């Protein structure tokens, strides 16, 4: 196939060709970036939690009148929940993975250092690790004798009495590696305030923050042996078999209500719902991006159809002459296909440059990483395909032009 | 002439239905997407207190210890209880209010209603006149009630509807968290968006059902929600323990009617910080800010990044649609070279042809704008189905509807300019001859 005649024809239709190239370039640039954003969101939504999500339930209870002994109330409730058929284990926690609201603390390696080393989230509560199915890779779980009542600890903090504070903690592998790279973290001390020193007694494989907005700090997690009192911000976490979740949740809520009809169940959901809720904006954004990308590709394809049809109509005489001079239908078909391929290629090259520029802008304003090179060939192939599909109809119509057209004056 | 051109445009557009439909579709899609995202952006970045926001300021001071200090760092975004009370009692602004959010259980007198939790705002007397809250019945409490830890409450019209069927409930008793409160006022519908005075509750579509004095909350240990940042040995509170003195957890707003007053107030904050430093409470050199309401929203980046990103994306899409339309219009106009040649030969000026073609483009734009408005309505309906807190606010208002048509018309005229100009450049003799 000769390219030169195509080029010389295009040179005479600079404006139309230029518009088509521009449209393909813009589409290519936007699609590359949008697909990249979709990938980012999907990747984020896959963030591991470190817990057995499909087997967990969360219930939050609010008391209208404060119980006389809020610690005893928690123990009673936990005993009650354990008796619900299908319940394997129960924990009481100040927060849950991907739950949103989070308790955080600055971590120091030395009580007197001027700047925090990192900011980590702090899980409090009994039976957390075993109930949520968090895997320990070293050391031990928290023991009942490690635990301190939260009110006692807060008083101790305010009076400076370090005896009434917790002394040990569990941390994640990622956090250990950040604090003591390459060392065995067991036995090391970390400090939340100059007087709250915690010895690392266990290392967890993974346990995500309740508000994991940034993947790089999502695993900076501690579990501290504080016993929580009944309060509406706290959660009962129940482990059961995946297939029993719905009936167990209903039965557990009924049991809690029966024990005290005056209280209000504010939250009752599976951990699948917790994750769904946490990533709802990401899912919506990915959906919108998919919609825009599809619409963009359709509009571009329709534009190509429109312009190619116009060209074919304009060149009917020329096509007739070529056919009369011996060109086959295949020659004509290929002519238009090659022409589209050329225009698409120029558009794609320009589009890549533009895509890179848009990515730089997004990196500056929206803290996105650099566009990986893999998106360029993928984007190119997609646009080539779309161009070829779009031009096929008009090109077939061109190939169907009979040679006799050459002899007629239009 | 205009009508004649309109008629010509209509005929021409009907002659090639596919090409016309493609143009209208492209415009409608581009406009629909742009208006959908613009409406969301418009709603989210709106002024929550129109006409008043320029006088409302959010003072920040820096009571932290020296740990982690750096000169460029912003002061904390809330106040400690001590500083809050000090600034409140100093009363150096026209009006000032200290506040915190929470949730409280309401125990209705009617046995037919189960107890339920509602959002609460614990604040001080000036809150109501400063923010211009509309009262349906009664009035706010006053500063004497604040100091007396009065068991008084202002409720929302929604709660009044639910509990009292919308009747005037002023003077009646409401049991909140086991304590009897006297209702002193009922607010008319009031829900500023964004929820500027406390952004920790979620920025949009949040409102409180009960408002009661901050001192009363402290006295009764009512539960608090929101953010709580501590340093040193500070511990955040629980239901029974207030946050420590080294914790910031309260929002403080002031009203300053003139820029001169604002400058003086900022000076006062510096003096206050210095004084506290002399007393030994503050360790850092004075580090104060005094942003007005809109600056505060901007500083906190309340409009979600995703929404901005979507707006950029939609405009990129609109540009592609317009380029597409330029191409299609070029095809359409160039095909009419013969007809235009005849008009030129009969004496029509280039200007006249240009006007004729632009009117044709304008018709496409208007029809596309109509389609775009329909698509935007559909798009906003889709936005409202999402569970983001701002989703319920996404509605097309008349100004945005007008904007839809102006944008569609403007964009299509712009897109039609180049093809129309090109089509007018033909030499009439050449066109006539070739036929």
Task: Describe, in short, the structure shown.
The complex is a heterodimer of chains A (410) and B (435). Chain A has 410 residues and is of the alpha+beta class.
Describe the model.
The complex is a heterodimer of chains A (410) and B (435). Chain A is α+β, with helices and mostly antiparallel strands and 410 residues long. Chain A is built from twelve helices and 13 strands. Chain A has helices at 4-12, 14-45, 70-82, 128-132, 150-159, 173-179, 245-259, 271-278, 280-314, 316-324, 329-366, 375-399, and strands at residues 56-62, 89-93, 104-107, 118-124, 136-139, 148-149, 168-172, 189-193, 196-204, 221-224, 226-227, 235-239, 264-270. In chain A, strands 3, 4, 5, 7, 8, 9 and 10 form a seven-stranded mixed sheet that branches. The model of chain B has no long low-confidence stretch (mean pLDDT 89). The radius of gyration of chain B is 31 Å and the shape is elongated. Chain B is α+β, with helices and mostly antiparallel strands. In chain B, the strands form two sheets. Chain B has a six-stranded mixed beta barrel with strand order 2-3-8-5-7-6. Chain B folds into two domains: 2-45 and 304-434, no CATH class; 53-299, no CATH class. The two termini of chain B are 28 Å apart. The interface between A and B is large, with 64 and 60 residues.
From the spread of the alpha carbons, the general shape of chain B counts as elongated
Any idea how many domains of chain A? Answer: 2
Structural class of the secondary elements of chain B?
Answer: alpha+beta
What percent of residues of chain A adopt helix (DSSP H or I)?
40-55%
Number of helices of chain B: 14
């Amino acid at each position: 196939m000769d390219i030169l005649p195509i080029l010389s024809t295009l040179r005479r239709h600079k404006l139309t060709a230029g518009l088509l190239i521009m449209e393909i370039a813009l589409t290519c640039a936007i699609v590359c970036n949008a697909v990249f954003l979709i990938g980012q969101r999907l990747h984020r939504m896959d963030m591991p939690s470190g817990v057995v999500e499909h087997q967990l339930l969360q219930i939050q209870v609010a008391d209208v009148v404060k119980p006389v002994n809020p610690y005893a109330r928690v123990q009673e409730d936990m005993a009650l929940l354990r008796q619900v058929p299908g319940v394997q284990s129960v924990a009481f926690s100040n927060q849950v993975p991907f739950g949103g609201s989070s308790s955080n603390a600055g971590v120091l390696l030395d009580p007197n250092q001027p700047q925090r080393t990192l900011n980590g989230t702090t899980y409090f509560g009994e039976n957390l690790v075993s109930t949520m199915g968090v895997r320990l890779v070293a050391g031990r779980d928290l023991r009942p004798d490690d635990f301190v009542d939260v009110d006692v600890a807060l008083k101790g903090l305010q009076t400076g009495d370090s005896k009434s504070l917790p002394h040990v903690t569990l941390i994640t592998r990622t956090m250990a590696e950040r604090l003591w790279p390459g060392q065995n973290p067991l036995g090391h001390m970390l400090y939340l305030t100059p007087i709250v020193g915690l010895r690392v007694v266990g290392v967890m494989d993974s346990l995500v923050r309740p508000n994991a907005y940034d993947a790089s700090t999502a695993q900076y997690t501690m579990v501290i042996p504080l016993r929580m009192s009944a309060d509406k911000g706290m959660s009962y976490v129940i482990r059961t078999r995946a297939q029993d979740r719905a009936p167990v949740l209903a039965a557990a809520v009924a049991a809690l209500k029966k024990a005290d009809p005056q209280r209000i169940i504010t939250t009752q959901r599976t951990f699948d719902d917790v994750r769904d809720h946490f990533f709802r904006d990401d899912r919506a954004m990915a959906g919108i991006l998919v919609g825009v990308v599809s619409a963009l590709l359709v509009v571009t394809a329709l534009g190509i159809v429109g312009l190619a049809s116009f060209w074919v109509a304009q060149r009917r005489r020329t096509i007739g002459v070529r056919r009369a001079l011996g060109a086959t239908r295949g020659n004509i078909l290929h002519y238009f296909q090659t022409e589209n391929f050329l225009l698409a290629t120029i558009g794609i090259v320009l589009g890549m440059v533009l895509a890179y520029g848009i990515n730089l802008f997004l990196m500056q304003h929206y803290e996105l990483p650099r566009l990986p090179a893999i998106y360029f060939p993928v984007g190119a192939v997609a646009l080539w395909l779309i161009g070829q599909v779009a031009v096929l109809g008009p090109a077939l119509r061109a190939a169907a032009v009979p040679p006799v057209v050459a002899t007629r004056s239009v | 002439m205009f009508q004649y051109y309109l008629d010509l445009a209509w005929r021409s557009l009907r002659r090639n239905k596919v090409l016309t439909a493609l143009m209208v579709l492209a415009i409608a899609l581009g406009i629909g997407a742009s208006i959908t995202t613009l409406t969301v952006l418009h709603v989210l970045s709106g002024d929550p207190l129109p006409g008043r926001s320029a006088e409302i300021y959010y003072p920040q001071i820096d009571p932290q210890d020296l740990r982690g200090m750096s000169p460029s760092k912003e002061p904390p975004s809330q106040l400690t209880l001590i500083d809050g009370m000090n600034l409140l009692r100093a009363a150096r602004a026209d009006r000032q209010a200290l506040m915190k959010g929470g949730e409280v259980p309401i125990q209705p007198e009617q046995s037919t209603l189960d107890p339920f939790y509602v959002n609460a705002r614990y604040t001080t007397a000036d809150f109501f006149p400063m923010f211009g809250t509309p009262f349906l019945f009664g009035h706010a409490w006053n500063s004497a009630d604040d100091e007396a830890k009065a068991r008084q409450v202002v409720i929302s019209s929604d709660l009044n509807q639910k509990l009292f069927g919308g009747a005037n409930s002023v003077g009646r008793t409401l049991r909140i968290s086991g304590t009897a409160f006297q209702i002193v006022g009922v607010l008319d519908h009031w829900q500023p968006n964004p929820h500027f005075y406390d952004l920790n509750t979620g920025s949009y579509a949040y409102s409180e059902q009960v408002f009661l004095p901050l001192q009363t909350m402290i006295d009764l240990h009512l539960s608090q929600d929101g953010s709580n940042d501590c340093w040193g040995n500070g511990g955040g509170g629980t239901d029974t323990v207030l946050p420590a003195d080294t914790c910031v957890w309260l929002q403080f707003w002031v009203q300053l009617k003139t820029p001169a007053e604002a400058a003086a107030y900022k000076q006062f904050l510096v003096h206050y910080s210095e004084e506290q430093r002399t007393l030994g409470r503050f360790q850092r050199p004075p580090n104060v800010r005094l942003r007005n309401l809109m600056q505060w929203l901007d500083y906190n980046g309340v409009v979600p990044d995703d929404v901005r990103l979507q707006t950029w994306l939609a405009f990129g899409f609109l540009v592609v649609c317009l380029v597409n339309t330029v191409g299609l219009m070029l095809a359409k106009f160039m095909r009419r070279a013969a007809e235009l040649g005849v008009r030129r030969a009969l004496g029509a000026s280039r200007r006249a042809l240009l006007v004729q073609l632009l009117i044709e483009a304008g018709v496409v734009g208007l029809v596309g704008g109509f389609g775009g408005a329909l698509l935007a309505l559909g798009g906003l309906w889709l936005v409202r189905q999402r569970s983001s807190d701002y989703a319920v606010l996404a509605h097309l208002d008349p100004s945005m509807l007008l904007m839809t048509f102006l944008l569609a018309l403007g964009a299509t005229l712009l897109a039609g300019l180049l093809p129309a100009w090109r089509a007018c450049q033909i030499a009439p003799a050449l066109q006539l001859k070739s036929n």
